[in-house]
C-alpha cells in the first residue's frame, strides 16, 4: 500500500474531510490518555537536551520536596499534540498551518501520572478563504487535577464554492 493510499483509507475511517465551516464552538476532540514513564523522561531529556536533575535524579527530586521525577512543562505540553487524536485526519485536505500554541502549567506532573488530554473548539475566526480555528487544550491527571491548559490555533481552508 502506498503512503497516499494509507492516508486516504485513514481519512475514510475517521470521517469525511472537514473545512472551517464544519466546526462548532464546544466540539471536542479526545486524545488517548497516557501514563508518563521513565522512558518518556529519558527520551525527552535526549531530544531536548534539558539535563537538569529535577527531571532524572530521584534523590535530588525528593530532597527538593517532589515525590518523584518532575516532568518538564514541554514534556507535558506534547501530550496535547493534536496528531495523537483524530483531528488531523479530519482536516487533511483543509489544514493550511499550525500557527500558534500557548500553555500554562498549573500543577506538577510526575513519573507514573496518567494524563488525559482534550481539545475543544473555543474560537472560530473567519477570514476570506480560510479561518482560524482555536482549540483550547486541557490536560488533567488521574486525580482530575488540571495540570495544563492552553490554546492551539490552526489555519483551516474554507470550502470552495
- What is the N-to-C succession of helices and strands? HEEHHHHEEEE
How many helix segments? 5
Number of domains: 1
In the CATH hierarchy, the architecture is: Roll
Radius of gyration equals 18 Å
Strand content: 25-35%
Looking at the structure, the CATH topology is: Thiol Ester Dehydrase, Chain A
User: What is the H level of CATH, i.e. the homologous superfamily?
Assistant: Hotdog Thioesterase
| Number of strand elements | 6
Distance from first to last alpha carbon: 33 Å
Sheet of most strands:
6 strands, antiparallel
Describe the structure.
Helices cover 24% and strands 33% of the residues. The chain has 161 residues and is α+β, with helices and mostly antiparallel strands. The protein has a single domain (17-157), classed as Thiol Ester Dehydrase, Chain A (Roll), CATH 3.10.129.10. Strands 1, 2, 3, 4, 5 and 6 form a six-stranded antiparallel sheet that branches. It starts with a helix and ends with a strand.
Amino acid at each position: 500500500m502506498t503512503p497516499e493510499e494509507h492516508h486516504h483509507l485513514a481519512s475514510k475511517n475517521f470521517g469525511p474531510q472537514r473545512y472551517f465551516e464544519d466546526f462548532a464552538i464546544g466540539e471536542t476532540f479526545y486524545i488517548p490518555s497516557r501514563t508518563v514513564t521513565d522512558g518518556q523522561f529519558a527520551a525527552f531529556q535526549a531530544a531536548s537536551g534539558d539535563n537538569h536533575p529535577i527531571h532524572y535524579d530521584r534523590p535530588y527530586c525528593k530532597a527538593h520536596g517532589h515525590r518523584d521525577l518532575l516532568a518538564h512543562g514541554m514534556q507535558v505540553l506534547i501530550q496535547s499534540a493534536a496528531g495523537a487524536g483524530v483531528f488531523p485526519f479530519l482536516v487533511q485536505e483543509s489544514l493550511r498551518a499550525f500557527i500558534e500554541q500557548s500553555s500554562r502549567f498549573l500543577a506538577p506532573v510526575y513519573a507514573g501520572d496518567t494524563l488525559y488530554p482534550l481539545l475543544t473548539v473555543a474560537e472560530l475566526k473567519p477570514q476570506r478563504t480560510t479561518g482560524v480555528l482555536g482549540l483550547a487544550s486541557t490536560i488533567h491527571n488521574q486525580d482530575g487535577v488540571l495540570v495544563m491548559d492552553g490554546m492551539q490555533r490552526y489555519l483551516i481552508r474554507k470550502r470552495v464554492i
